[in-house]
Write a structure and sequence with these properties.
This protein is mainly α. The protein folds into three domains: about 55 residues; about 180 residues, Orthogonal Bundle (hpI Integrase, Chain A); about 50 residues, no CATH class. A three-stranded antiparallel β-sheet has the order 1-2-3, with no helix packed on it. β1 and β2 form a beta hairpin. α3 runs antiparallel to α4. The chain is extended and about 75 Å long. The model has no long low-confidence stretch (mean pLDDT about 80).
Length: about 300
């Protein structure tokens, strides 16, 4: 009960030197903190000693860009194509295409995708087609769908087996909800079936290694960030409790074209090309641009002064 901040810092240092992943270290510190929280709630201690550690002294749950594997653009397209062409005995390409689209194009976890009901889909919501589902942690998320995913849902509903339309009512249930990604007899896909399907489609698409469903969610997050979606908006969209979790999905910083040094290089290359094209007129154009920028800044400052007066 008399543990000190120094004791905690020594223990955290031991965890850091143990070679364990930062997420594992953070979970252990969190477990200890929860223990002391319970003692504080029972008025056994006056303060949780873990709270005395500064944020920088605690192990991070996840560093940016360390959340496993994400597909590149060509691999993502190849996977979608493989799903749409998933034909053969007892295979339903419309269902395969929808499962991949929900995880890769909407960022759903595999359990969220296979848990969807037909009634969770609304073809004409306030902002177009949408789905509303229960996410991890009991959060209810409504997600607007782009045209590709909406088309995959419509295509699957058009061929969904008739035997899967109405499942048996459970005792006490008022209405029966129909499983969206159902088997022929109306049961939902299992996680094991979804894993096998994703792995098989990954191999058909020529993607090396064993592809896992969560790799598609990572791809969704990584592409979103590359396309300019803010971390906060993506955090809410994916149902993450902490922004650090969302940042862990950002694989874009590991790509050379997104590094600042490449951005500077591209800028200088454009300026060099413009200089070579304009020749003697280049310096005059630069001076004109500088004068225009100065005049614009002065005009903006004058407007802001007027606005303050108002």
């Amino acid at each position: 009960m008399s543990i000190s901040k120094a004791d905690l810092k020594r223990w955290v240092a031991e965890l850091a030197s143990s070679g364990r992943a930062s997420g594992t270290q953070a979970r252990r510190v969190s477990a200890v903190s929860s223990f002391y929280d319970s003692l504080f709630a029972d008025e056994v201690i006056d303060v949780n000693p873990v709270d005395r550690l500064r944020a920088r002294e605690r192990p991070k749950r996840r560093e940016a860009g360390t959340a496993g594997r994400a597909l590149n653009d060509s691999q993502a397209l190849a996977l979608l194509d493989a799903a749409e062409a998933d034909s053969g005995p007892r295979r339903m390409p419309e269902r395969s295409a929808l499962l991949i689209a929900l995880m890769l194009g909407a960022g759903l976890r595999v359990t969220e995708a296979i848990g969807l009901k037909v009634e969770d889909y609304l073809a004409e919501g306030d902002n177009g087609a949408q789905i509303t589902y229960l996410a991890k942690g009991g959060k209810t998320i409504t997600k607007v769908l782009d045209s590709y995913i909406d088309e995959r849902i419509r295509a699957w509903l058009a061929v969904r087996p008739a035997t899967a339309q109405v499942p048996a009512l459970q005792a006490g249930a008022r209405t029966a909800k129909r499983t969206l990604l159902s088997t022929e007899d109306g049961r939902p896909l299992t996680r094991q079936t979804a894993y096998r399907l994703v792995r098989r489609l990954g191999a058909a698409a020529g993607i090396p290694g064993n592809l896992a469903p969560h790799d598609l969610r990572r791809t969704y997050a990584s592409i979103s960030i590359q396309e300019g979606v803010s971390i906060r908006a993506l955090q809410l969209d994916m149902g993450h409790a902490k922004s650090e979790t969302t940042e862990g999905y950002d694989r874009s910083r590991h790509q050379a074209e997104n590094a600042p040094t490449f951005a500077v290089g591209r800028r200088l290359a454009r300026v060099r090309e413009e200089r070579d094209r304009l020749g003697d007129d280049f310096e005059a154009r630069i001076e004109e641009s500088a004068e225009l920028a100065e005049a614009t800044s002065a005009a903006v400052a004058e407007v802001m002064d007027d606005d303050d007066d108002l």
